[in-house]
Amino acid sequence: MHVLSELLTPGRTVCRAPGSSKKRLFETLASVVSEDSPGITEADIFAQLIARERLGSTGLGAGIAIPHCRIANCNQPIGCLVTLEEPIDFDAPDDLPVDILFVLLVPEEAHQTHLEILARIARLFSQSSFCEALRDAPDSRVLFQRATEWQA
Amino acid sequence: MKIIILGAGQVGGTLAEHLANEQNDITVVDTDGDRLRELQDRLDIGTVNGSASHPDTLYQAGADDADMLIAVTNSDEINMMACQIAHSLFNTPTKISRVRAPNYLAHQEKLFTPDNIPVDVIIGPEQLVTKNIVELIANPGALQVLDFADGRIQLVAVRAFHGGPIVGHELQDIRTHMPKVDTRVAAIFRRDRAIIPEGNTVVEADDEVFFIAARKDIRKVMSELRKIDKPYQRVMIAGGGNIGATLAQSIERDYQVKVIEQSYPRCRVLSESLKHAIVLHGSASEPGLLTSENIESTDVFCALTNNDESNIMMSMLAKRMGAKKVITLITNPAYADLVGDEIDIAISPQQITIGSLLTHVRRGDISNVHSLRRGAAEAIEVTARGDAYSSRVVGRRLEEINLPDGVTIGAIVRGDEVLIAHRHVLVETDDHVVLFLTDRNRISAVEKLFAVGFGFFS
Hints:
The complex is a heterodimer of chains A (152) and B (458). Chain A is α/β, with parallel strands linked by helices and 152 residues long. Chain A has helices at 3-7, 22-36, 42-55, 111-125, 128-136, 140-149; strands at residues 13-17, 59-61, 64-65, 68-70, 78-88, 98-106.
C-alpha cells in the first residue's frame, strides 16, 4: 500500500503552506522539491508544471490536486506533499478550490510505470478519511507520518 | 487565469473585454485614470493607475500571483521593460509584449530570449497587418484570408454572387462540380446571422461564406461562389509609413506598385529602400494626382496612413475615380461599423493583434487564433494532445466528437498532410485541428473538449 513512503521524504512534506494562487504555489512546490532533490532545477520544475496545467487541470475534485509531469535529470519518481492554509482556485473539474496537493515528478522514460503510480496515488487520495487525516495534521512531521503510514 | 494587461488603449481594452467573460481574473494598468474607470464600469476587472513598468505598480496589480503579463502600452520600451521586471522580480510564467519598431523586430531572435530581454511572445501589429493585406491582394475577391498550419491551409471569407456556379445550389454539389478539389464550408453568415452549413444547405447570393481549403485550391473554390476577379496587377499605396513601406517591399516584385507619401524626406528614404516600386510625393486626397497616376486602371488602392479619416475619405475618392478595389486601414471600431459598400475591405489592426494575442492566452496547445466578424466569431487551430484514454478527441472519428453548438471542424493537419474534415476522419495524437466558432463564447467549451484528462503526462 505504501506508495507514498517510496516517493516522499520529510523534506518534501509541507503542512499548511501559505499561497494565494496557483502560480505562487507552484513556485513553493518547485523550490521545496529542488532543495531536496539534487540535479533538478527549480526553474525547470516550475516551467514543466505550468506547461502541463495549461493542457488540462490536474485537479481531482474534492479539494485534491495531483500536479504531475516528466522532468529531465530525474532518476526515479519523486513526490512532494503540501497542504494549504487557504484553499486556492485550481480549475478543478468540480470547480472546488484545492487545499491538498501531491506533486509527482517522473523521469522522461518508462511511461507505463508512471501511469500505475499515478493511479495508485489517485486511489489513495480519493479516500476522504485519508484526506481528512492530512488536513488535520498540525505540523509537517505529523503530516509526513500520516501520509506514509496510512492503513487503508 | 490571472492576467495583467498593461495599457488600456484599444487593444488592451478590447482584450480585457474578451477575457473578462472567460473565467479569468483580469487587472488592467494604465496611467490614464479616466480610461480605467470607463473600462471598470463595463467590465468585471481590477485596475491599477500607474506606470506600467514600475515594480510597485506591477506588485499592486498582483504580479506575485499572475500567470501572464500582456504589455500593450503605446511604448515599446515600457512594454519590454515591464516584461524584464516581471521576469526578474515576479517570475511571471508567460510574458507577451507588443513591439512596433521594425528596428527591434529586425533583431528579434537575438534580443528576446530568457537571458536577454525575457519576452516569451512578441506581437508586431504592423507585420501582422502587412501579411494580411498581402494575402488579400493575392486572392482577388476575398474579404479575409487567414493562414493555418504555416499557410498549408487557409480560411477564406468571400461574398457569394449571382453567377457563381454553386449559388442557388446545395453545398454538396461542389463535389460534383469539382471532384478533385476538397473543401469545407465552415460557416455562412446570411444577413448577419450564422448558419451552420450542412450538405443540403443552399447558398444564396450575398451570403458571407467562410470556407477552408488547401492553399492551392483557394482560387478554384472561390470561383464556385462568384465570378472570379482577374489577378491584380496594379497596386497603389497611400501612406509610406511602417505598414505602407513593408507592404510595398514585400509585393514590389510581383505587382506594379506606386507609393504616395506626403513627407518629402520620407519619400527619399522610401525611394532608396524600394527597388521596383515608384514613390510619389504628394497627397492621395488630391484628385489631380490620382488622375495623373491612372487611378482608373488601378486594381487595388490601399489607404494606410495613420489617420482614419484621411484613409476613409481618400478610399472613397479613389473608388469613385475608378479604383477597382479599396483596402482601408481603420483603427476606430466605430468607423469600421459606419463605412458602407464604398470601402471594399476595412482592416482593423486591433482585431488582427487580438487574434494573435489570444493564441497565447487560451488554454490548451493552440497555434493560431483569428478573431473574426469584429470579434464575434473565432477560428482556432488547436493541437490534439494525449491519447484515446486521456483525450476526448484523439482516437475518435469526427462524427463521434461531441462539438459544442455553433462550432465546426474545418480541417486537420497531420505533419505535412492536409485532411479536409469529413465524418469518417479519425483524429490522431498531435493532429492540428482547425475549428470555426460562430460565437466566440463557445471557446470555454472548446477548451474543455480539447483539455487532456488527469492521466496525461507532459
